[in-house]
Design a protein that fits this description.
It is globular, with a radius of gyration of 13 Å. It has three helices and five strands, in the order ββββαβαα. It has a five-stranded mixed beta sheet with strand order 4-3-2-1-5. Pfam families: Ribosomal_S16.
Length: 88
């Protein structure tokens, strides 16, 4: 199963995270399928590739709790609902 989750980057005590699509069995810093965003909790900055996230969610990827919250704040799920109703 593919998951959307955080991958830790940065240096000690200054963590930044990449939001990646990755196989659910892989470890945290394992090989990812695709980078779909960036999250910096210290400066509270977020950058998301919304079409890529929508693609993986449409294919059945499961976001982790933190990625779900970040995506929800950015309005990704409203776009997902709009796309689903548009094609139904």
């Amino acid at each position: 199963m593919v998951k959307l989750r955080l991958k830790r980057c940065g240096r000690k005590q200054r963590a930044v995270y990449r939001i990646v699509a990755i196989d659910g069995r892989s470890r945290r810093e394992g090989r990812d399928l695709r980078k779909v965003g960036f999250y910096d909790p210290i400066n509270n900055q977020t950058q998301l590739n919304v079409p890529a996230i929508l693609y993986f969610l449409d294919k059945g990827a499961q976001p982790t709790g933190t990625v779900y919250d970040i995506s929800k704040k950015a309005g990704v799920f409203t776009e997902l609902i709009l796309n689903q109703t548009k094609f139904d």
